[in-house]
Amino acid sequence: MTILRRTALVFGLPSVLFAAWWVFSAGSVDFYRPPLSSILAAFAETWFGSRIRDDVLPSLLRLAAGYSLALVLGIGLGVLIGLSPRLRIAVEPVLEFLRAIPPPVLVPILILFAGIGDLMKVLVVVSGCVWPILLNTVEGVRAIDPVLADTCKAYGIRGADRLRHLVLRSASPQIVTGARQALSVGIILMVISEMFAASSGLGFTVVQFQRGFQIPEMWSGVLLLGLLGVLLSGLFRLVERRVLAWYHGQR
Amino acid sequence: MLDVKHLRKVYSGHGRTVEAIGDLTFHVAAGEFVTVVGPSGCGKTTLLRCIAGLLPATAGEIRVDGRPVSGPPPGLAVVFQEYGRSLFPWLRVADNVALPLRRRKLSTVERRKRVHDALAAVGLHDSLEAFPWQLSGGMQQRVAIARAVAYEPRVLLMDEPFAAVDAQTRADLEDLVRDVWRQLRITMVFVTHDIDEAVYLGQRVVMLSRSPTHVLDELTVDLPDERDQLGTRSDPGFSKLRARVYSQIRAAKAPVDLGKTAS
Ligand SMILES: Nc1ncnc2c1ncn2[C@@H]1O[C@H](COP(=O)(O)OP(=O)(O)OP(=O)(O)O)[C@@H](O)[C@H]1O
Ligand SMILES: [Mg+2]
């Protein structure tokens, strides 16, 4: 596929949808559904100023902190559980129970323990992101090829070498799958945690606009969240392409 | 050096019990090259895995260097039958060969030289940077052999290592393995289903029966240590030896009652 055709395919549908939105909303006088043109005007005004520093950045930092912590926790615990059948049997019911709790209901509980500051919001993100990473890591570690495991044993590849060159790499396709799911969960939870109790952040700002009947501004916030999602998943794909080059090349 | 005494291995589980190895006893002296032949499914891979300490024996004992095997003995290398799956798909060829050397006290230069030499010896000097899955089956098999050679083990176990290469490469690799064995004075246990190969390579051929396996016969290969593909293979002594192995294997493969009349 040529670059040109690829670009056309990638941007085709978004452009069509955007154009349709523009055309169909152009003459709108409905207060709650303003024309796209005024949403875009509000977008530039709202977000290209101090709000980037005061609202967008704090949100992203909390997301990054929570997501990183979830990665460390999920991969670390996942490797431990995946390597030990006994531990797995012991913790599986508890994991299933905890995983089944929708993270948003944890927000009021976490507020009790962690207050309404950054810590609470980071913990909300962690509490949602950790499960897909953890469970996928466990599956990935369990699926290590027995011939490769024997190779390591026979050649005395142990300890940190084994962890780095066998366990983590074998499991990496599954870990990446879990991390991808966790990223979308994380974005949702970032916003939700800011809707409850906050003084800054994207979720907070969108709710403020809605309460203040600043409808085009509210819509522009939604648009920004969507764009951030696209950006983050693009970044994710770049990382994935590097980490899993061997995996995608193989198939 | 390597002692197998009354080895018995029974696989059980998943509603099936297989007595893969019945009662196996043989000895390999230090620095000896022993080839093992036997019909498919007679437990050759099982035997190697037991020797390598990867599989616990059901009964009997294996000693390497006088020490009973309970885990992988140090200084032992294996070329697995599933050579393709024994390479790390996320490591390039050179790194695959280098990985087992990480624990050795070698300088970076020495390590790199060993890796290059081993890969050059199997004819893969221009595939250092490739990933294993970019290579053909035969090339992957050669990487696995190079990895074992670079490791410079004292005991080398090879499980049908030339199954996926063409005749010419096979002949070259046979000579390579013999060269390595002679240079490093390795103790070698080499499993093959190719009778000619067993006789050409080994100082001794151990013939296995079908499951439950025992040693059918052992044959000392009284050919000179200098072997070459044309000369040795056309030697009358060679033909006599291979005929003996052949008749034994045929007897082992035949149904049990026929086997009795034939032997
Ligand atoms: N993991 C296992 N679980 C159960 N049975 C097994 C297992 N591995 C091997 N067997 C059985 O043990 C017997 C010997 O198998 P093994 O792989 O050792 O044979 P082999 O001599 O190496 O055969 P081939 O020449 O085809 O490689 C076979 O009957 C096989 O079905
Ligand atoms: Mg086998």
From TrEMBL, chain A:
Database matches in Gene3D superfamilies: MetI-like (1.10.3720.10)
Pfam families: BPD_transp_1
InterPro entries from the UniProt entry: MetI-like, MetI-like_sf
Any one GO biological process: transmembrane transport
Keyword Secreted: no
Record has Thylakoid as a keyword: no
Subcellular location: Cell membrane
Entry superkingdom: Bacteria
Transmembrane intervals: 7-25, 60-85, 105-134, 182-206, 218-239
Gene Ontology, cellular component aspect: plasma membrane
Keywords associated with the record: Cell membrane, Membrane, Transmembrane, Transmembrane helix, Transport
Residues in ABC transmembrane type-1 domain copies: 56-240
Membrane topology: Multi-pass membrane protein
Protein family membership: Belongs to the binding-protein-dependent transport system permease family.
Protein's recorded name: ABC transporter permease
UniProtKB/TrEMBL annotation, chain B:
InterPro entries linked to this entry: AAA+_ATPase, ABC_transporter-like_ATP-bd, ABC_transporter-like_CS, ABC_transporter_ATP-bind, P-loop_NTPase
Leader peptide range in chain numbering: none
The ABC transporter domain, residue ranges: 2-235
UniProt-recorded Gene Ontology molecular function terms: ATP binding; ATP hydrolysis activity
Keywords from the named record: ATP-binding, Nucleotide-binding, Transport
Name the UniProt record assigns to this protein: ABC transporter
Organism: Virgisporangium aliadipatigenens
Upper lineage: Bacteria, Bacillati, Actinomycetota, Actinomycetes, Micromonosporales
Gene: ssuB
